[in-house]
Amino acid sequence: MGSEERERGRGRAARLVAQRRSAGAARFKAAAREAVRSLPPALRERIDNVDILIRSRPTAAELRQAGVGPGGSLLGLYQGTPLPLRNSGYHAVLPDRILLFRQPLESISRTDEELIAQIRHTVLHELAHHFGIDDDRLHAIGAY
Scanning 9, 61, 112, 114, which has its CA 20 to 30 A from the CA of 93? Predict the structure, then answer.
């Protein structure tokens, strides 16, 4: 195989990897949107100023922010001001963010169905923080 053929082969492989990543990101976004759509309308209508973003994996700073120690994992993260803490000074602010971390979510899911269920669970968990529900309360109500 000549160098030109090897280069073409690498180019095809890179395109396939990019297509898989793109399909993976699209699948994650669709699953996250469906998780939000699955909420009762009265609850869904209360979601205010939140973006859901897909990342490959959390940064070291995000792991620290979430209190995740060495060797730990993080599936999602809410960053923002929960609804109960917003007051009259809350205006002209960037959206809160729910970060979903693709690689950790994929690593705990054996099938596409498990992955979609885990994305849904993670989105709903992070939305709970948006509504002012902390991890202790989520544990207490069996939603963890």
Answer: 61
